[in-house]
Specification:
With 264 residues, the chain is an alpha/beta fold. It has one domain: TIM Barrel. It has 11 helices and 10 strands. The strands form 2 sheets. It has an 8-stranded parallel β-barrel with strand order 1-4-5-6-7-8-9-10, surrounded by 7 helices. A two-stranded antiparallel ribbon has the order 2-3.
């Protein structure tokens, strides 16, 4: 079994239990959409992630205070905050998301392996504004059903792809936000060429393109920008940074001319 297979096996067990778990009551505050934030920015937009650990890296920062980390991200200029809510593999929780929602006024991405609508219900209740759908984890039927369900709940959807076949499937939905993950979810190896290879498949200039994983230096971020990315999703680098604000400044590079999208 690949790492993704193991994670999805655990998710199936988790969903059975979620039926009996009451929804958390998140703060219903009004925040701008991620798309509107990206549209108003001429610099690289950053989705900053709260990440205690991962299957590939092990423990990153098990003692992190999600609220304090989120506030630091907001003060540093994050466009959105990603909160890992998977417990078995990433040591996250929906309570982390709930706490972060109350602390910041930015869009929040629920970062999880979503395969059932009940997970979307829990994410929205806890205060998420964006949910992640990983094409590799879903059949075409599941993908379309969950995408439509989320958008009907007024959630933004980040569709994540890793290869040409997944990008083709994603583009059929004419999505507003696509994330290209440079990490292979089957091997967890990183290759920044993934963004460069797949970005050219996106023809709609209004589509927000996010390059995910492997952003360690300004050079990496510039490489993503040159490929057409409007945003980057960064977890481990910020979690390990001695100075989060300085790292943010190094990553908020000007976007190339023509990379800016419209709000509508």
């Amino acid at each position: 079994m690949t790492i993704l297979d193991k994670i999805l096996t655990e998710k199936a067990k988790e969903i059975v239990q979620l039926i009996n778990v009451p929804l958390l009551e998140g703060n219903k505050k009004s925040v701008p959409t991620f798309k509107s934030i990206v549209a108003s920015s001429s610099n690289m937009n950053i989705i900053a992630e709260i990440k205690r650990s991962s299957p590939s890296k092990g423990a990153i920062d098990m003692d992190v205070n999600p609220v304090e980390q989120a506030k630091q991200y907001e003060e540093s200029g994050a466009a959105a905050i990603s909160v890992l809510t998977d417990k078995p593999f990433f040591n996250g929780s929906m309570k982390d998301l709930q706490a972060v929602r109350k602390a910041v006024d930015l869009p929040i991405l629920c970062k999880d392996f979503i395969i059932d609508s009940i997970q979307i219900d829990h994410a929205k209740a806890a205060g998420a504004n964006i949910i992640l759908l990983i094409v590799a984890a879903l059949s075409d039927e599941q993908f379309k059903k969950l995408y439509n369900y989320a958008t009907e709940l007024d959630l933004e959807v980040l569709i994540e792809v890793h290869n040409e076949e997944e990008m083709t499937r994603a583009l059929e939905m004419n999505p507003e936000i696509i994330g290209i993950n440079n990490r292979n979810l089957k091997t967890f190896e990183i290759d920044l060429q993934t963004t460069e290879k797949l970005a050219a498949m996106i023809k709609n200039p209004e589509t927000i393109l996010i390059s995910e994983s492997g952003m360690k230096t300004t050079k990496d971020v510039q490489r993503a920008a040159n490929a057409g990315a409007n945003a980057v999703l960064v977890g481990e680098t910020f979690m390990r940074a001695d100075n989060v604000e300085e790292t943010f400044k190094a990553f908020q590079i000007p976007l190339p001319v023509g990379a800016k999208i419209n709000a509508c």
